[in-house]
Amino acid sequence: MRDGLILVTTFTSGSNQAQLIDFFAMRIGGRQRPRRKLVRIVRGVRGRMTFNVVLAPRLDFGEVKPWIFPAGKRGYVAVGSNTALLTFADIPLRIENDHDLCGELEIRAGHRKHLALQFVRPERAATVRVRSGAIARLEAQFKETRDWWRDWAAKIPFADGPGVRIKRSAIVLKALTYAPTGAIIAAPTTSLPESPGGERNWDYRFCWIRDSTFTVRALSNLGLESEADGVRRFIQRSAAGNADELQVVYAVDGKRRLTEITLDALEGWRGSRPVRIGNAAQSQYQADMYGTIIELSWLWSERGAPPEKHYWEFLTRVVEAAISRWRQPDRGIWEVRSRPRHFVHSKVMCWAAVDGGLALARKYSLPLAASRAALWVRARDQMRNAIESKGYDRRRGIFVRAFGSSEVDAALLVLPIVDFVAHEDPRMLRTTDAICNRLSRRDGLIMRYVGQDGLRGLEGAFLACTFWLAECFARQGRIADARRTFKHASACANELGLFPEQFDSQGARMLGNFPQGLTHLAHVSAAVALAKAMHRSPQTLNRSPPSRSR
Length: 550
Hints:
Layout: E1 6-13, E2 16-24, E3 37-46, E4 48-55, E5 67-70, E6 75-80, E7 83-89, E8 94-96, E9 100-108, E10 112-120, H1 134-153, H2 166-175, E11 177-178, E12 183-184, E13 207-208, H3 209-221, H4 225-239, E14 249-250, E15 261-262, E16 276-277, H5 288-301, H6 309-325, H7 344-364, H8 370-390, E17 392-393, E18 398-399, H9 426-439, E19 461-462, H10 463-475, H11 479-490, E20 502-504, E21 509-511, H12 517-533
Helix pairs in contact: 2-12, 3-4, 3-5, 3-12, 4-5, 5-6, 5-7, 6-7, 7-8, 10-11, 10-12, 11-12
């Protein structure tokens, strides 16, 4: 459905037709009292059709075949490991092979059949029963869910059109949100490969700090203040404490320990091994996290919420950590598994941490001793001098991927976001052209980088980076280039408007975990930037991003 997360699939056989409606049941107050229920409704449209029904739950990443037993009239419970699932339907089901539920249904025009799958605590499995009227209530829950999504989507002052899916992207980001904490995961899947048959398979079911600034910027522009505030508060809670112990990624409940392990019993998509759970990025040093934390506070302060005194004390320690460690090589925004390097994007984000800290202190009269402020200014200037000497190719007049490198990196496209360099600065114009020339493919999409990263195999074009390029073109006033690049990237969505992380045009296939939150965020930002550049944005989207005066 257009304005919600309800999937309708139509089946046709000759003159017969039926629809399958899938949705997670939503309700007002679901943050505190979630239904945790997946509902399927089969609706007869014309004639009659017959369907086979098979429910084969496998728990703990497929390693556990559950124990299945009746749970009252028309209900069954499947339990194993730390999970229990309650199933109920107005379709006759039977246990087969001890671990599956099977049945058949015939649906006629005007009739509906229902099946629900609901999570319950495993300790309740022996006593849970299907309540009277539960099946009848599924119809009411469908209407409630439909209305819930329509009401939420109505807040977005932007209509979707051909190739522009701002509202759909916002709905996807809402669906990636863990409501109790506000965390937004990168993707709901693990180990969908970036290189089919290879080892570039990662677990993205976590919340990355760096995504938070993209999230707050994009959602705030759409008027979704509550969602933007939710992810901001999650990052503040999870990252606060000792600035020397920051990490770049957290579980949706704020947990830090995300040990990466492989599940050797799983084959992976088209033989793409290993299948991983957890993510080793949690222990990597990625220097951009300091600038991300400060930038997040700056963005929110510009919306009327400057940091409180106790949080400002933590932010000053973040700035001090950036000053202490900026000279160290790191793994960078792309979390390379090769040796650490002096990535220019990381150095700029350390610069942004100090610059942003100074801007916050100055604008909101936050306590900062004159001696410390002088130290910060000196460190900020040292960072800029290093970047503009070691991270800049004077012969070509462009920024480069890493100190001493001649290569470029699509992450350089976001340097203007933290006011290190203006979009229209000649150096940025030339850098944008160099990225386009070096990283573009025949299909108009761009790679995030080229070169060794410690892994075998080649990945596809990176869609978020392609949208970043479109946004950069738009903010530089290069409208034709922006529209063309935006069109190429937008064409990679599927028929439901969902974007992957990467795309292989030659094989016409999506790559990486799916749907990818960062791609949807980049799509929103590029669409808004392009609309502004073309003077077609709604009044609520005409606000320029705040810049820091220095």
